[in-house]
Amino acid sequence: MLNALRSVPADHYYLFKSCLTCSLYPGIEKSIRFVLDRIGASYTDDPRHSSCTGFGYHAGVVPLKANLALNARNFSLAADSTDKHIVCTCPTSYGNLKECKDIISSDESQRKFVSAALKKVGRTLDITPSIHHVSDIFLARIDDIRAKATHDFSGVRAVTHHGCHYSKIFYRDVASGSFERPTVLDDIAKAFGCEVLDYSERSLCCGMGFHYTMVDREYPRSVLRRKFASIKKAAPDVIITQCPGCIFNLDYYQETLSEEIGPLDIPVLYFSEMAALALGADPYEIGLDMHAVPVEPLLERLGIMEGRR
Amino acid sequence: MVADTMRVALERPAKAVNDVRLDRLCGFEKCMQCGRCTASCPAAFIYDDYRPRDVMRKLQLGQKDTLTHLLWRCGQCYSCAARCPRNNSVASGILALRESAIAAGLAPEKIMDAAAIIRKNLYNHGETFLPSTFDFLEEFGPRTTGRCKDNGKKRVRLGFNRHDARAQPVPEDAMDEIRALMDMSWPGGGRDA
Question: Which residues of A41-63 are buried (b: 16+ CB within 10 A; e: fewer)?
Fold first, then answer.
């Protein structure tokens, strides 16, 4: 087992919800809980934690001090919990929390500032909770998850796309493969029977770009033109992702990009949606009908839609 | 004035500024102008005037004011950071420069509009992005619009709040802490949000 994977906690997760996931694909959050419940994991779903601010921080509009202060509070909530290992849905939360922890522990003036700020709201600075992405947890517990599977994805040809903020900021911490070629999602997809295909632009960003998504969507469109030209050559049945920004981009832009580069219509699944489906989740209960590119034809092919509405 | 194509050694590196992201994470003093960052950068692929290597050069020369119009070119993917042989991060330096540009009133108007939306989302809900922040569905074509126009109702069916990102919004006493921390840490305060 890889060192990075060995450091993944066996249990006791403090689930760190993602504002982008909950806003655009709330079913992904449900699919994560569905799988954790099925394997009997213990976790805390604390409504008190705030957004990590990462979407705004990387857009350049949330000041560093606000980012540090709000996440210092989030750390203190996890530290007080019985489930102390922070597990993020979103790679930007994962990268941003790690960066906040790094800056708070190494920069004395920032540490003094956040410590004093927390004191004023009645909290104590404690940055000891560890930080993980939920795909690392699924990979570390893949045998537990697979043991509960009722469906598999044999014969499904998949490509994977890892989030940049998972693999490129704290690039030594990738749990499988390397930052140039992370294979966390490949390992998970293979565990459910997928055949994983290669494509030349594997490591190219999805182009979400934070402020770009709010103010100038020509940038994501240009990056995705390159990305999809490469994915199209591999002709996969499904794209597997681990990031709410990436799934939004890879899913929503397909219809209009098809007009430029030819038909696409490739369903995009979050790895936790695939795992929940393998474990028998009702596709509608995990919101698969909220996806832009229809997932239903793939599910029908796999016999997962039978008896469903 | 150094031409974009000319690479010269520095007699004296530019003085550091007071932001850990420029002083430590960015690492521009260590940059040897190899250009791996520019070769990796999706924004440099699109915009002829944006090259991460040149951002580092301008920082070395103490010419950060010449970068103001380029700061929002970066898409924050950190490919530059992952590929740098000297463990530098142009993307981190960009964040420090964006924060000082906003403080100096030098950010584009659209960025300031986005900043106002995000601050309001955080101050009112404790969330950076809300369902209502996604207000451009129609751009994605008629089929996507048709499929996703009722996603607001579908999220309620899944047990989520219609207007908040969460199933269970951040409780009010927690919001009091979040607002107090924002008031202390966000220049201009959060109260006018």
Answer: bebbbbebbbbbbbbbbbbbbbb
In sequence order, the β-bridge partners of residue A182 are A177
pLDDT tens-digit profile of A64-123? Answer: 999 999 999 999 999 999 999 999 999 999 999 999 999 999 999 999 999 999 999 999
Residues 6+ apart with CB under 8 A from B14: B28, B59, B60, B61, B62, B63
Residues A126 and A193 reside in one and the same domain: no
Distance between A171 CA and the closest CA of chain B, angstroms: 6
Put simply, the answer to whether B165 touches A179 (Cβ < 8 Å) is no
Q: What is the CATH number of the domain that holds A241?
A: 3.40.50.11810
pLDDT digits (tens, 9 = 90+) for A267-285: 999 999 999 999 999 999 9
Q: What is the total count of domains within chain A?
A: 2
Which of A134, A159, A191 delimits the end of a domain? A134
Q: Which helix (H) or strand (E) holds B124?
A: helix B109-125
Interchain CB distance below 8 Å, A66 and B76: no
Q: How many CB pairs under 8 A join A and B?
A: 227
In which element (H, E) is residue A78 found?
Answer: helix A64-80
Domain spans, chain B: 20-103, 109-185
What is the least distance, in Å, from the CA of B149 to any CA of chain A?
9
**Angstrom distance (rounded) from CA A118 to CA A111:** 11
A14 Cβ under 8 Å from any chain B Cβ: no
Rounded Cα distance, B181 and B176, in Å: 9
If DSSP codes are grouped into helix, strand and coil, which group holds residue A17?
coil
Q: What is the extent of the structural domain holding A289?
A: 144-301
Task: Give me the CATH topology for the region B20-103.
Answer: Fumarate Reductase Iron-sulfur Protein; Chain B, domain 2 (1.10.1060)
Q: What is the pTM of this model?
A: 0.95
Of A102, A134, A166, the residue at which a domain comes to its end is: A134
